[in-house]
Structures are given as structure tokens and as C-alpha cells.
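Open question from group meeting: does this chain pack into something compact, or does most of it stay loose? Before anyone orders reagents, we agreed to write out a predicted structure and look at it together. Recording both the input and the output here so the notebook holds the full record.
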Amino acid sequence: MAGQNLKAHRLGWIGIGRMGYAMAERLARAGCDISVWNRTRAKAEPLAAHGAKVVDSLTDLAACDIVFTMVSTGKDVKEVLFGANGVMAKGKAPRIVVDSTSISLEESAEIREKLARQGVKFLAAPVSGNAKVIKAGKLTVVASGPKDAFDAVAPYMQAIGQGASYVGAGELSRIAKICHNVMLGVVAQSLAEITVLAQQAGMQRHAFLDFLNKSVMGSMFTRYKTPALTNLDFHVTFTPELLRKDLDLGLSAGREFGVPMPLASLTRDLVQTLIGNGYADRDFSTLLLLQAKASGIELKPENVDVSDGLS
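C-alpha cells returned:
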């Protein structure tokens, strides 16, 4: 971040879940002037050790230049901004609001319109990654909205992770994130198929994945999922139900824009089958177990220490 003044704007942050905490922590550690609010204050208090100011009221953030929201739903975004005790409840407003919550295009457009009526610029900024990816400095962001607002926010996106990609006006970033998650599902299913095929042919999974990860086909995703596929540790990063929702959104967009999506459609049905087989509360990478079952084999952990490519 050489040459960038990270104290040029007063920042506000709303939402200290696993993702929100990790993102706000990186901003605080980078030396930003940041104030944070969370419904449960105790979850935000550890950020004070890194220089953040923890506030008691959302209206305390109205004087900030830029306010970030990372909450659970579109309803929550509207409540923290426009509710009776929201940021703008006393008539003051920040210059820019940046939302990284996973919400629908319709909710995003509604929030944009409400903010515009109060002279506030809105960036829709969904992210790709999870708390572990954020800690490694590899979070990616896709943003849409006014270009001057993006330019003002870009240094802070860079401090959070690998910066942001600007894709245009309005809600285009929400479409970009849907496209991203459709690919996530299709690639995860393909990875499950070839890994099971390699094992059936006599390879150890970790050996095959080591080759794949070193090849032109390897990616941050294949490397990140290698420990799960090798040792069958399926702690949740993203549930099958959330993946199904995004595949449904992608298929809906395909119908709207006249784009056939046969791979996405088939993957959606496989994810539904995964849910129906009792994997709803585990990670979506359990597609590997479903593929193994369909192939007549039972997988066992290989108990090999393999890298996730993040450290």
C-alpha cells in the first residue's frame, strides 16, 4: 500500500461475524481510522487492541466518510442503515456505503435508490473467500456502482485483500458473484469426479491432487480444497444449500438473458441430491463423498499433511 493514505477517510464498519471481523481487523491493522459496530458489542471489542474504535450506536457512524456493511441478509442491511436506530436515524449520513453482504439484485437496487435520495453513493461489493482466505490476504472483491466511489474505496479493498475488480454501474457485481458461485459448483463437481476416478485407477488422492495443483489446471480453489479431499475434513466453509441457492440464481439469470447453462443445471441437481442424502449441514465439497458412493466405493482419510496453498 505504498503511496496510499489509509487515514484519508474515516471508516465505519457494521457486522463482526467471522468474515466481517477478519476484514475489519485487516483495516485496523493497516492503520485505518475505523469505528466498528456489532449487535453483540463483545464480539467487536477485541478489535480495539488493533486500533479500532468500538461504538455503541449505529448513529455514531453517520459522521464517517465510508461505511461498510457485512451482515446476514438484505433485511439486516436495510435495518442497520434505515431502521429506527440505524446509521441515518438522526438525519446525518456517510458519503459512501459499501455492502459486502450476500443479497439479491432487487434488494441491492432498493438500497441504492434509498441511499441516492439522501445523497449517499452505494457500492455493491460481494467477496470471494472466507475468514481463512482473508487472514492470508487473498480475499477478492467485485464492485459495482459510481466509479468515483470505487476509486475512493479501492485502497481499503487492497488493504483487506487482493483489491477489487470494478465491473460497472448498478448491481452488476451481484451478477458477477452469482457467475462466480455457479463456477464454484461446476468446478467442485468436476474435481470430485476426477479425484474419485484417479483413486479407482489406483492413485492416492493426495498424490493426484499434488500433480493437479502444480499443473496449469491447478488453482487457489483446488489447492485450498486439497486437505478436505485428502483427509475428508468437511468442516463448513459453504453449505450445499447456499450453493444450491446460487446455482438457482444463476439458472434464473440464464433464463432472463437467454443463455443456456446445461452444466450449471446438471450440477444444481447433483447438489440437490447431496442435500437429499443428508449432507446439508456439511461443506459442499462432500460432493466427493456422493461421487464415491455413486462409484461403489467408500473413501477413507489418508491422514497426510498437505498444504492448502494459503500460507
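Observations to bring back to the group:
The chain has two domains: 10-170, 175-294.
The beta strands are 10-14, 33-37, 53-54, 66-69, 96-99, 121-124, 127-128, 140-144, 164-168.
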